[in-house]
């Protein structure tokens, strides 16, 4: 798919559809492309951090830093694949994997206490002291049968989050 | 880009209150003891972020030229453009008279326009002013006691002088839709390209208008003639006291004797290809809003008045030496605020209607945020809410 042209051919759409495992319909992909082009102001073929931060709701989101590390520099195909976790057709497995990736900052497949602490810090800001955060985390970890120095992997996440209803769907506006 | 930075100050005055446009918190509060899964389940926050990226939670923007056509309209010289500054740029027309066949024709055109059309038009305009003033001044002074009759005559005379103005540019205006009538509790809103919008609309209906105070002869007109049709003036640098202006608007709208009020909610002149975000002032008066869409045909003249670059006089002279001003005016169906709609949503809905009818694009509102990011306190509010819920649930043993 050429980065210079802004025309989306049928081949491109089908390729993207396949890449995201059919979690988005073709119409949704076209809408997402419009949105991608709208965000990608300098037509570089990818959305830079600055362009993401220009979406105000994204900028004020507590997890925005982590998320745009994941999404920075993605081309359109990868952008759609990234968003596929938000589709209503995404499986629970897929959503849990996405959440795992948000925690697993260094991408080594293991989430440590420090990673959990980092996310909790993003979500709570200065409204809980660092000490309290550590206490809370240790407490709930131990209650769930883990230790402070346990390293959580994807299957742990699946176990913990697997039977909750994860509400993460986002509707793609289709013209 | 120093050019952008220097215009920051002016744009500050146009900047709407961003916080009004951000959604309020609506995260569900589960109850019960705090468990690991509650801390690991960041799905609500992720959903908000995903929605923001996809533009799902924001109102869907209607883009009426497909993104393919839109991308062709790229301004050449500035390297990093954003949609906000694009609204205020006038594309210089491409030179078509560069070859030996077209150049003489173009020269002939110039001769006709400046030598024949312009004097004729200036004559029309001057005679129009003479007729107008010779009727207006007596009416204004002699009929002081008979207010109703005086107002009626003054309205008709203002409409007359506007017709003369329009004739002086060879204005060909096509009006579509039912003509506005004077009723209480209604305001008219329109997209804004130049001050001539007002003249074109005033030609058929004597509107009252809310305007920025201007210097010079325009200011004189404002204080005398426009005052008779009911003109609310404000000074942009004093626009901080919105309450006074808002009160005046409300009073005007409620008076049955007053002329229908015309407001340009964009607050500034925009080149006729885009609409920028509407200010909510016109939409929170509790009255019916009647949208008017105006679209100029660029083949004949580019009617955009860039008030930073030209004075109004220069602008008028430019119009008088062009071939014609051709435009369409659509009077659209009156809209009321739907139950549960905020004034801002109402304003955006009306903007969509106007942009659709005129066939122009709506600028994504995040263009404003090139100049200011939302304050960190919005993020802190979310953090605080989450922190409090965590601590509270920790207590519930």
UniProtKB/TrEMBL annotation, chain A:
Source organism of this protein record: Ambrosia artemisiifolia (Common ragweed)
Q: Could you tell me which SMART domains the record lists for this protein?
A: EFh
Gene Ontology terms for molecular function: calcium ion binding
Species lineage: Eukaryota, Viridiplantae, Streptophyta, Embryophyta, Tracheophyta
Task: Tell me which UniProt keywords the record has, alphabetically.
Answer: Calcium
Name of this chain's protein:
EF-hand domain-containing protein
Specify the EF-hand domain's residue ranges. 27-62, 91-126
Automatic annotation (TrEMBL), chain B:
Establish whether keyword Phosphoprotein is in the entry: no
Which GO BP terms sit in this record?
phospholipid biosynthetic process; triglyceride biosynthetic process
- Domain Phospholipid/glycerol acyltransferase, by residue range, is 186-297
- Which pathway does it take part in? Lipid metabolism
Q: Where primarily located?
A: membrane
* Pfam families xref list: Acyltransferase (PF01553)
| Family matches, as SUPFAM superfamilies | Glycerol-3-phosphate (1)-acyltransferase (SSF69593)
> Transmembrane residues, as ranges?
98-116, 122-143, 155-175
- InterPro entries xrefs: LPCAT1-like, Plipid/glycerol_acylTrfase
Q: Which GO terms describe its cellular component?
A: endoplasmic reticulum; membrane
Annotated GO molecular function terms are: glycerol-3-phosphate O-acyltransferase activity
Keyword annotations of the record: Acyltransferase, Lipid biosynthesis, Lipid metabolism, Membrane, Phospholipid biosynthesis, Phospholipid metabolism, Transferase, Transmembrane, Transmembrane helix
Where is the protein situated, by its record's location annotation? Membrane
Q: Which family does the record assign?
A: Belongs to the 1-acyl-sn-glycerol-3-phosphate acyltransferase family.
In Swiss-Prot or TrEMBL terms, this protein is called Phospholipid/glycerol acyltransferase domain-containing protein
Organism per entry? Ambrosia artemisiifolia (Common ragweed)
């Amino acid at each position: 798919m050429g980065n210079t042209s802004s025309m989306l051919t049928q081949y491109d759409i089908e390729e993207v559809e396949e890449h995201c495992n059919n979690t988005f319909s073709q119409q949704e992909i076209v809408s997402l492309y419009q949105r991608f082009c709208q965000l990608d102001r300098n037509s570089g073929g990818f959305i830079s951090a600055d362009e993401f931060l220009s979406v105000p709701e994204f900028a004020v989101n507590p997890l925005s830093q982590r998320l745009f590390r994941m999404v920075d520099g993605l081309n359109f195909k990868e952008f759609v694949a990234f968003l596929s976790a938000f589709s209503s057709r995404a499986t629970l497995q897929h959503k849990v994997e996405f959440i795992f990736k948000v925690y697993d900052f260094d991408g080594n497949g293991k989430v440590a206490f420090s990673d959990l602490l980092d996310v909790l810090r993003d979500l709570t800001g200065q409204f809980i002291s660092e000490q309290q955060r550590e206490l809370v985390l240790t407490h709930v970890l131990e209650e769930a049968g883990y230790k402070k120095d346990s390293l959580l992997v994807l299957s742990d996440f699946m176990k913990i989050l697997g039977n909750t209803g994860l509400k993460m769907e986002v509707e793609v506006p289709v013209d | 880009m120093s050019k952008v930075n220097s215009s920051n100050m002016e744009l500050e005055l146009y900047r709407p209150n961003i916080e009004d446009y951000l959604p309020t918190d609506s995260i569900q509060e589960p109850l019960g003891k705090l468990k690991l899964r509650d801390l690991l389940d960041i799905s609500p926050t992720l959903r908000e972020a995903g929605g923001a990226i996809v533009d799902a939670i924001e109102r869907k923007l209607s883009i009426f030229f497909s993104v393919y056509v839109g991308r062709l309209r790229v301004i050449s010289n500035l390297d990093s453009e954003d949609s906000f500054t694009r609204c205020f740029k006038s594309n210089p027309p491409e030179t078509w008279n560069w070859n030996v066949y077209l150049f003489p024709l173009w020269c002939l055109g110039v001769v006709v326009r400046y030598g024949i059309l312009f004097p004729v038009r200036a004559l029309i305009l001057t005679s129009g002013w003479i007729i107008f003033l010779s009727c207006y001044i007596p009416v204004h002074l002699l009929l002081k006691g008979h207010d109703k009759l005086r107002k009626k005559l003054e309205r008709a005379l203002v409409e007359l002088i506007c017709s003369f103005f329009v004739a002086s540019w060879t204005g060909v205006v096509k009006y579509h839709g039912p003509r506005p009538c004077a009723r209480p509790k209604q305001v008219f809103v329109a997209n804004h390209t130049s001050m001539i919008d007002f003249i074109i609309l005033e030609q058929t209906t004597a509107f009252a208008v809310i305007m920025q105070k201007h210097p010079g002869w325009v200011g004189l007109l404002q204080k005398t003639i426009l005052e008779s049709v009911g003109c609310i003036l404000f000074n942009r640098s004093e626009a901080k006291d919105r309450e006074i202006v808002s009160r005046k608007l409300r009073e005007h709208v409620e008076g049955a004797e007053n002329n229908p009020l015309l407001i340009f909610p964009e607050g500034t002149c925009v080149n006729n290809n885009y609409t920028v975000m509407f200010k909510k002032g016109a939409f929170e008066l509790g009255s019916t809003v009647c949208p008017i869409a105006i679209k100029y045909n660029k083949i004949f003249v580019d009617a955009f008045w860039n008030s930073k670059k030209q004075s109004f006089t220069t602008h008028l002279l430019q119009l008088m030496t062009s071939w014609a001003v051709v435009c369409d005016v659509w009077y659209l169906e009156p809209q009321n605020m739907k139950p549960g709609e905020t004034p801002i949503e109402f304003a955006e809905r009306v903007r969509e209607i106007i942009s659709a009818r005129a066939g122009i694009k709506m600028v994504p509102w995040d263009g404003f945020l090139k100049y200011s990011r939302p304050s960190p306190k919005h993020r802190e509010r979310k953090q605080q809410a989450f922190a409090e819920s965590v601590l509270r649930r920790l207590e519930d043993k």
